[in-house]
C-alpha cells in the first residue's frame, strides 16, 4: 500500500492508474484487483487506515482532557488535542507527509467518494470537539464555532503540506523549517484566539447613529 500512497499523494486519485501502482510495487495489476477490488477500494482502504488512527488518537486526547478538567476545558487545550495527531503524523516521515497531502486532496476536491470518506471517518469525532468548544465558549454561537472549526481544518492542512510559502512571502528572510512542535504551538495560539473572539453578527446590523457629517448632508438637501 505504500507504493499506492506515495502515488496518490503525488498525482492524486484521478491522476494515478492501477498500472502505475503495480509497476511501483513490482506486482501484477491483477493482484490489486484481487486483494482490493480495484483502485477505488484501495484508496478507501489507505484513507480509512490512516484516518482512523488519527481519529483514535484525537479521541484519546479528548477523553483525557474530559477526565482531567471535569467541566469546561480550556480552549487552547482542545485545539492542541485536535491538532497534535496530525503534527505527530508529519513527524513520522515520508508516509506521514504523503497521507497529509492525500488528506488535503480529500478535503479540497469536489467528489462524492471524498465526501463519503470525510463523513465516515472524521465527522463524529470532529462533532465531539465542536461540542466541547461549545461548552467552553458559552458566549459564542454554535454557528460561529462550526465556522471556526472549518477554518482550523483548512489552516492545518495548508501548513502541514510543506508548501514553503513563508520563504516566498518574506522575500526569503524567514523559513518555516521542519520544527513541527513550533508549528503546533503557533497554530494552537492562532486558532485558540480566533475561537475565543466575539461572535459574529451576520448580516451586520447597520448603524442608525447620526454622525455630524450625515447631519450636515441632511441639512444641505432640505
Automatic annotation (TrEMBL):
Source superkingdom: Bacteria
Entries under Pfam families matching the protein: TetR_C_30, TetR_N
Coiled-coil portions: none
Residues within the DNA-binding region(s): 17-36
PANTHER family: HTH-TYPE TRANSCRIPTIONAL REGULATOR RUTR (PTHR30055), TRANSCRIPTIONAL REGULATORY PROTEIN (PTHR30055:SF235)
Molecular function terms from GO: DNA-binding transcription factor activity; transcription cis-regulatory region binding
All residue ranges annotated as the HTH tetR-type domain in the record: 1-54
Protein known as: TetR/AcrR family transcriptional regulator
Assigned keywords, A-Z: DNA-binding
Signal peptide region: none
PROSITE patterns according to UniProt: HTH_TETR_1, HTH_TETR_2
InterPro entries for the chain: DNA-bd_HTH_TetR-type_CS, Homeodomain-like_sf, HTH-type_TetR-like_transc_reg, HTH_TetR, PsrA_TetR_C, Tet_transcr_reg_TetR-rel_C_sf
